[in-house]
Design a protein that fits this description.
By secondary structure, this protein is mostly helical. It contains 18 helices and no strands. Helix content is 78%, strand content 0%. Helix 1 packs parallel to helix 6, helix 2 packs across helix 3 and helix 3 packs antiparallel against helix 17. Its main location: membrane. This is MFS transporter. It is a multi-pass membrane protein. Keywords: Cell membrane, Membrane, Transmembrane, Transmembrane helix, Transport.
Amino acid sequence: MSTPLPSHRRWWVLAVVSLTQLVVVLDGTIVNIALPQAQESLGLTDSQRQWVITAYALAFGALLLLGGRVADYWGRKRTFIVGMVGFALASAYGGFAQTGVDLIVARGLQGAFAALLAPAALALLTVTFPTGKDRNIAFAVFGTVAGAGASVGLVLGGVLTEFLDWRWCLLVNVVFVAVGLVGAFAVLAESRADGDNRYDILGAVTVTLGLGSLVYGFSLAETGWGSPLTITFLAGGVALLVLFVWIETRTAQPLLPLRIVTNRMRGGAFLIQAIAGSVMIGSTLYLTFHLQIVMQMSALQAGLASLPLPVATMVVAPLAVRLLPRIGPRPLMTVGPLIVAGSLWYLSFITVTGSYVVQVLPALIVMGAGMALVFVPLQNVALSGVAPDDAGAASAVANSAMQIGGSIGLSIFTAVYVVALGSHTAAEPTALAGAYSATFIAAAIGMLVAAVLAVTMIREPASELLPLPEDEPQPAHAG
């Protein structure tokens, strides 16, 4: 059930949940720039430094589907608020960390509460803007924030690290959450799935362990794809996810109704979202390395140098909003990845002596414009036709596609980087530039795949996907 909101309050809902999305997405990258200082301050080993990133992705990716169903059953506003408060407390814990273990635990807690927060926020947006032109605008804004968040994290991380301290890359979340909580209590209305809802405990355990094993396996793959431990975790993750799908076909109230992902258009959108997420996270990370290590920029300079990407996304997004109802999602979601692929190909020509203005800036502007064409329709298409009772679960899949895609993509890009670097060392700028170039080419190939998926899987118009009837037959309960 849900409480209808006056139309003028819906835009305040959009502002609140978009702020939340910004916090969740930028927190995946804001710490990256601060890691060198954090490592020196806390005496982190290289292994612990890696876990500062992995712990967030692991907890976030593993718990997202469960978080989505908690939002559906317990209440989306209530879940949103609990997730916000928990995220703030975890951020404060990390900001005041005294040891490497403290920081890693804090990042894991951030990911766990983000797994409650993110699907609840997107589900609130879905039920607040069910149809029409306003829905297109709302999802365009939300998608733009999601697309630009990784780059915003790099910029903000550079500013905070340069002028304050690395700890503020975590403590700043408390400020964001305080603003978000005020907005949540003021404008959000409670909504939840109707009926006698019961949690799919077996499904929750299976998918959490499966996604966790997969994310951890890919994090291990960054240092060796052929190691027995990597293979064990990746194979175990796949096996558990196959078991999860089987369980969901035999459960009356599944954690993930398979109708959400088996629809061709939504399935294509989820796949494109995974690729786009991996490219945004991976390409911005390796570009930051090039700016700081090869071009010798400070953290602040590297952050500001990344700024044209989100700015271009925000400038082009309104144009994409106007085009979406006229030409449909498929042209945008096809042309956008092709533009991004072209920008990444251009970026692959970086050299040690090349200037930022010639070799980097044009690529960032074009990439930002292309990403706007991708992210504006993406969230809308991914959630089109989803029944209100499934809003949290579908939102969790959308977020999970971005998070798991980012983890997998980053592992693949790292493997490409290692192979391209070969026997050279990180002290050789020419070799580094060549290795970074290889990762940009790999990312460009990924975006070409996304364009093919858009052509073959995205139907139009999006309005063809209508909510499933509430009396749709449900599978019999196991046993």
